[in-house]
User: Fold this.
Amino acid sequence: MGEAIELYALGALGRDEAREVEDHAAVCADCSRLLGEAERTVFALDELTVPQLEAPPELGARIAASSRVVVPLRSRRPNVALWAALAAGLLVAGFGATVTHEIRNDRATIAADDLAFSSIAVSHFLHTTFTKRSPDAPTAKVLWGKTPHWFYVIVDSASCDCNVVEITSSGERDLGPPAPRGNTATIFVPDAPDAKGLELRTGTRVLASVQRPMSP
Amino acid sequence: MGEMRDDELAEDFVARRPEALEAAYRAYASTLYSVARHVLGSDSDAQDCVHDALLRVWGRPGTYRPERGSLRTFLSVCVRNEAIGRKREAARHFHIEQRAALAEPEQPYEIEIEDPVDRARLHEALAKLPSEQRQALELAYFRYLSHTQIAEKLGVPLGTIKSRLAMGLRKLQNALPVPSASTL
Assistant:
């Protein structure tokens, strides 16, 4: 990666360039080590220049709750109860999902929904519908966030026996089955800048597919 | 949950144990919040930044690996980069401010460090660098400019700026005091 290592550590790269460095470091031990050395230098600068402050306690509660929602992509079936609340939020917003709204008053739950709600509430996003490739394909739609590049898949069937597969220019990634939410099944991916499209599959059979829309 | 050692936190983070992100945040909260607050200058922006940066890392398995070094350093740089990205995006929304920033006359950056010992250490380390490397580093580190913005501001080819930044930071590795063990 050459000079990109130091530029990344300094924060001198643009977002796309920085993401390339991160992706490479994730699979290259040597570059990861070099990156760590550069980051240590920036951290040493921070130690000299950044006044230490106490973090607000509410931030810890927010992160704790959100960390239970945003599971790694390889994990399957996130917490159903928490996502029911999100699906209800979408219903209120007019997206047509018929779900049960579980009102839970504890602060942790409210904070847990924060990331997904805020992604939908504060970002620009586009809405597309899956094209059916098979007679037994369920009706499904996707919300595509622009910044950051999240997406949210809503399948109009809670019992869909299918996986969501993300298609990228370098291959594909099986995200697992969407999780049931009332009469729908959903899956939220918070960070997917490389997604070119999605497919619903049963085994290797493609039930439906959709392309990521071009930004207006 | 009791206090965990840094290596235990890192191990749990790599293994993606369910409580690892929360535990890492609790251990490094002050460091992470302080960095974001320093770059963004706002409490609410800093909170959003730390939250989103950590969740972004957590949502992308493999981003942190042990070869990279300490988890604290890794997360701190992630938060700092996120904060800088947000600062630049905010600047893009205020074109006038951005143009004004780029049009500022070149002058030495006033480094505000309260601790005289730390200030002296930093000045001593930076003074060891060739002036063109020091200038590029100061614009990147203290003013959060990207390499393209620095090249534009200084009227120097992009490749030259990349080299100056990379060489400058490598030289600083030896010139700066090693971070204390308690913070690594």
Notes: Residues 29 and 35 of chain A are 10 Å apart (CA to CA). The helical segments of chain A are 4-10, 15-25, 29-49, 57-69, 80-92, 107-112, 114-122.
